[in-house]
């Protein structure tokens, strides 16, 4: 631990004790006072939280602290998520003696051998990391109300979740049936993002299978996402070196890759008859079920046996990979199917040749494929003459009947409509089927097993596909604030594609499904409205309510206002006043004002949060805002246990101290951006905080009581502007911008001020207090220490947001002086070796005010001599926008007095003595005839050269 880190840790521990003693972060309802209720996603205690968690919690903490300064009654609570498999899986792996995982936990988290031995018990593991993570949050300086802490296996919480699920079931939003889910073959259970390594949500997609048949009756089920292109198939591809099988599936003998047969076995009955290499099937001919054409089976090593069925159809007119491969073979045959504005008959050929792609191994084929597929899907229309290729092998009248259907629903239709039609038609005609797959594979369970898709029977699902529910969810997304705004489109897209989602499983910690024994509610389903539970758990415990008293009627009254307190209280055996007190607590804090989490939770938790709120709560209790921050990298790399580069939050605090760490996580990137945490930057920020500390000490120790000067007024005005910009940044959750303003720009202003004055004034101390209050949300312990040094009363954490008023005249004086210094330095005589500078001030400020934004006539009418008026107007036009604005706002300005006040500053900047004269003073010497050259804010300058 460095000396700097030690200093910051000692400061932090001091103020953490004092906050806890004063219960600064344990608010109670205060009717009539505005409230701000913010939550961040609670962590799984399957490891100590790391700096990625720390960033999310810091954003929430900064928002909470800022609102407290604005006068809000702020609630920021925290809990721990024990539910599901993340904890159980790690405990099982450790119990099994997995050396790699055990070494990871020792090296990354510093777990002792004794504790490792006990971690085969999932509850011990959870409680160990729960304690470590909570300690890390406290050391990090999060202003959390720990009096509301709970875990998701607490009996009170389980009663709450059972109430939630009964509500969803009674509204028809929980169903039982057949549906594809992500599945762990080892644990025989459905999985979601929180059950997988790296929290990767299994994305389930659907292939259309098209049954091509060879002369022996073997079926080659090509898997495609573009079934509308089947009339243009010229061949099919098989990987000659891959492992294939002949298997019975859906009453047919099929050729499948061995891997595909395994994956399909979770979706239906698959019986492997024999194994084979792919080359056994190369050279055969198969019948296209739509066109009746016999097409060859070609070998292609680019076919991935782990994708689809390992059997691929080739459409070279509309698939760049197929065109390039067949061109390499000299076997190109092009059949046009789709018209797209801006492309010719054969889009794939056109794009491949335009991009200069030379072979089927060219990486540019990926880009070519994206272009063609996107253009055809969004703007493509199936050609009318495609009908002539349909079913020529069928006898009449079947041929005409099929063609009539295709003419009506396929030819001339947009690609999207044609795709839907032909997928359905193939299945109904027995010429094709469906296969589900993990489209973002590989996805691994936390146990290390690769996830597959299983079609479950009699599984419980939350039906996020229900249309009315989707519409309410969209309505909330449109009404609420989402930061960053660009994330709104991702929420709407997620709402669109969400369908049934498995909500219960048969293993893991959690809440039993209330109406069906043997099922446990899964972790992404029991964590959607728990923000409401924070508002009441403290009162439930304080009033001594037992879990069995937390009935459906209890929750209906507390959260929905249904029934009367007297009747409900009588039935559950509590005091009606106690029940009303719990209801008032919820009613005061809800709705949630801001939900903070990582952007990776948009496709699951955050969208489920939206769905469940609109399903259960009345509109006035719907959440108001979501903030989704980016990831945290470390030294340019993604953090992962396998790389051993995960930085636990408690270790980071010990390494840098909490406030330098907070400053770095705030300043390194804006909220929506991914943040690259670098050691060098953390150390720079630590040094910057020490510079601020030394500056504030100097200011406090040397300040004197005296009349305010131009310099004092300038300091207050500059600080007022910095604080206004910081306030605007905080309000928009632009933490980086706020941190730059407060940690660097404000420090530069105070440093310059101290360089200009002999002794700082007491008003400078007041300006520093204002600065410290604005700093507090980012570096709270450090701010408290500075607040104490400056003589602030109470806590900086609870001080009101400062009200400093900028003085436009003081700002104008400083801008004027800086312009003068620049003018002098640009004069050749100064550069040649100035010995002394004489400055002649024209005090007719009103002439300049008249000239700004006006014309020569206005300047003359204000009293300016005609021979000067044109120069005045030209000078006014040359001033920067800020200075022009200040001149328009400042009615009276004593240029001579301002310059006298800044004389020491000017002499220091120029490095020579400076004499200041009034241009209209007859007693002043007219050196070089510069009296008449002076204009308001543009003095005459004479330089004596030595």
What is the fold's blueprint, element by element?
Layout: H1 3-22, E1 35-40, H2 51-69, E2 73-75, H3 86-95, H4 99-109, H5 113-118, H6 122-139, H7 155-170, E3 174-184, E4 189-190, E5 204-214, E6 219-224, E7 235-238, E8 243-249, E9 252-257, H8 258-264, E10 270-277, E11 285-287, E12 294-299, E13 311-314, H9 320-329, E14 338-339, H10 347-354, H11 365-379, E15 381-382, H12 398-409, H13 415-428, E16 432-438, E17 452-463, H14 467-479, E18 481-483, H15 487-497, E19 500-502, E20 504-505, E21 520-521, H16 531-542, H17 552-560, H18 565-572, H19 576-589, E22 594-598, H20 602-616, E23 625-629, E24 632-634, E25 637-638, H21 649-656, H22 658-667, E26 675-677, H23 679-702, H24 710-731, H25 735-756, H26 762-775, H27 780-789, H28 808-825, H29 828-833, E27 834-841, H30 845-851, H31 856-861, H32 866-878, H33 881-889, H34 895-901, H35 903-910, E28 914-918, E29 940-945
Parallel strand pairs: 1-2, 1-22, 7-12, 18-23, 22-23, 24-26, 27-28
Antiparallel strand pairs: 3-4, 3-17, 5-6, 5-11, 5-16, 7-13, 8-9, 8-10, 11-12, 14-15, 17-19, 20-21, 24-25, 27-29
What would you note in describing this structure?
This protein is of the alpha/beta class and 946 residues long. Among the domains are: 153-168 and 502-590, no CATH class; 204-438, Valyl/Leucyl/Isoleucyl-tRNA synthetase, editing domain (Isoleucyl-tRNA Synthetase, domain 2, Alpha-Beta Complex); 650-671 and 679-808, Isoleucyl-tRNA Synthetase, Domain 1 (Orthogonal Bundle); 815-945, 2-Layer Sandwich (hypothetical protein PF0899 fold), CATH 3.30.2320. The protein is built from 35 helices and 29 strands. Helix 1 crosses helix 27 (780-789) and helix 21 (649-656) crosses helix 22. The longest helix is centred in the last third of the chain and has 24 residues, at 679-702.
């Amino acid at each position: 631990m460095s000396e700097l880190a030690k200093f910051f840790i000692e400061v932090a521990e001091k103020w953490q004790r004092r906050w806890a003693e004063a219960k600064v972060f344990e608010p109670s309802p205060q009717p009539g006072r505005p409230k701000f209720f913010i939550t961040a996603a609670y962590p799984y205690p399957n490891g100590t939280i790391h700096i990625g968690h720390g960033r999310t919690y810091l954003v929430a903490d900064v928002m909470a602290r800022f609102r407290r300064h604005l006068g809000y009654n702020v609630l920021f609570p925290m809990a721990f998520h024990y539910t599901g498999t993340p904890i159980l899986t790690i405990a099982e792996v450790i119990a099994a003696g997995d050396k790699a995982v055990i070494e990871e936990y020792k090296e990354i988290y510093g777990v002792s051998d004794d504790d490792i031995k006990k971690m085969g018990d999932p509850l011990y593991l959870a409680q160990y990391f729960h304690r470590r993570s909570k300690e890390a949050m406290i050391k990090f300086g999060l202003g959390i109300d720990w009096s509301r802490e709970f875990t998701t296996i607490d009996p009170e919480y389980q009663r709450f979740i059972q109430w939630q699920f009964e509500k969803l079931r009674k509204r028809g939003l929980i169903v039982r049936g057949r549906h594809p889910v992500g599945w762990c073959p080892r644990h025989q259970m459905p999985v979601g993002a929180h059950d997988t390594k790296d929290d990767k949500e299994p994305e389930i997609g659907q292939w259309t299978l098209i049954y091509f048949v060879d002369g022996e009756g073997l079926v080659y089920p090509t898997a495609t996402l573009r079934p509308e292109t089947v009339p243009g198939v010229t061949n099919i591809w098989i990987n000659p070196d891959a492992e294939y099988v002949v298997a019975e599936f859906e009453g047919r003998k099929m050729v499948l890759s061995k891997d595909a047969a395994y994956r399909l076995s979770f979706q239906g009955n698959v019986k492997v008859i024999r194994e084979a290499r792919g080359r056994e099937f190369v050279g055969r001919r198969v019948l296209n079920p739509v066109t009746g054409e016999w097409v060859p089976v070609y070998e292609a090593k680019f076919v991935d046996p782990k994708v689809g069925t390992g059997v691929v159809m080739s459409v070279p007119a509309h698939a760049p990979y197929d065109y390039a491969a067949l061109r390499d073979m000299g076997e190109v045959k092009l059949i046009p199917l789709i018209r797209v504005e801006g492309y010719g008959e054969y889009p794939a050929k056109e794009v491949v040749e335009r991009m200069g792609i030379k072979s089927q191994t060219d990486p540019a084929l990926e880009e070519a494929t994206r272009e063609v597929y996107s253009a055809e899907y969004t703007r493509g229309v199936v050609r009318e003459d495609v009908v002539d290729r349909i079913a020529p092998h069928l006898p009449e009248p079947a041929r005409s009947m099929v063609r009539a259907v295709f003419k009506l629903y396929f030819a001339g239709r947009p690609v999207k409509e044609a795709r839907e039609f032909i997928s359905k038609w193939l299945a109904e005609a027995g010429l094709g089927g469906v296969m589900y797959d993990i489209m973002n594979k590989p996805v691994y369970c936390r146990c290390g097993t690769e996830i597959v898709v299983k079609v479950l029977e009699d599984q419980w699902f939350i039906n996020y596909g229900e249309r009315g529910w989707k519409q309410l969810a969209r309505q909330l997304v449109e009404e609420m604030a989402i930061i960053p705004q660009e994330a709104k489109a991702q929420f709407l897209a997620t709402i669109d594609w969400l369908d049934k989602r498995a909500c219960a499983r048969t293993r893991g910690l959690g809440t039993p499904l209330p109406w069906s024994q043997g099922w446990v509610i899964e972790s992404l389903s029991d964590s959607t409205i728990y923000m409401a539970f924070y508002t009441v758990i403290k009162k439930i415990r304080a009033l001594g309510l037992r879990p069995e008293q937390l009935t459906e009627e209890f929750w209906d009254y507390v959260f929905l206002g249904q029934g009367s307190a007297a009747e409900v209280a009588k039935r559950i055996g509590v005091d009606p006043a106690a029940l009303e007190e719990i209801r008032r607590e919820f009613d005061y804090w809800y709705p949630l004002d801001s939900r903070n989490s990582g952007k990776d939770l948009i496709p699951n938790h955050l969208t489920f949060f939206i769905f469940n709120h609109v399903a259960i709560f009345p509109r006035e209790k719907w959440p108001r805002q979501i903030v989704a921050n980016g990831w945290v990298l470390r030294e340019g790399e993604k953090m992962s246990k396998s790389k051993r580069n995960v930085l636990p939050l408690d270790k980071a605090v010990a390494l840098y101290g909490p406030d330098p760490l907070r400053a770095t996580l705030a300043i390194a990137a804006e909220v929506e951006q991914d943040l690259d945490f670098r050691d060098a930057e953390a150390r720079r920020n630590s040094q910057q905080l020490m510079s601020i500390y030394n500056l504030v000490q100097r200011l406090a120790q040397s300040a004197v009581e005296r009349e305010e000067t131009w310099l004092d007024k300038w300091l207050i005005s500059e600080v007022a502007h910095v604080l206004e910009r910081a306030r605007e940044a905080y309000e928009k959750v632009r933490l980086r911008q706020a941190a730059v303003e407060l940690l660097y720009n404000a420090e530069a202003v105070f440093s310059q001020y101290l360089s200009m004055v002999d002794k700082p004034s007491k008003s400078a101390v007041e300006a520093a207090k204002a600065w410290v209050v604005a700093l507090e949300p980012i570096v709270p312990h450090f701010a408290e220490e500075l607040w104490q040094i400056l003589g602030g009363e109470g806590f900086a954490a609870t001080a009101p947001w400062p009200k400093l008023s900028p003085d436009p005249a003081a700002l104008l004086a400083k801008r004027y002086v800086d312009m003068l210094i620049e003018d002098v330095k640009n004069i050749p005589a100064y550069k040649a070796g100035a010995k002394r500078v004489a400055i002649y001030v024209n005090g007719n400020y009103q002439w300049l005010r008249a000239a700004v934004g006006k014309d020569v006539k206005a300047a003359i009418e204000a009293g300016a001599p005609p021979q000067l008026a044109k120069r005045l107007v030209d000078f006014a036009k040359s001033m920067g926008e800020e200075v022009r604005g200040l001149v328009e706002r400042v009615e009276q300005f004593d240029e001579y007095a301002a310059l006298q006040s800044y004389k020491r500053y000017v002499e220091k900047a120029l490095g020579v003595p400076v004499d200041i004269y009034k241009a209209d003073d007859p007693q002043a010497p007219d050196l070089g005839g510069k009296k008449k050259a002076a204009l308001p804010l543009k003095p005459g300058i004479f330089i004596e050269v030595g």
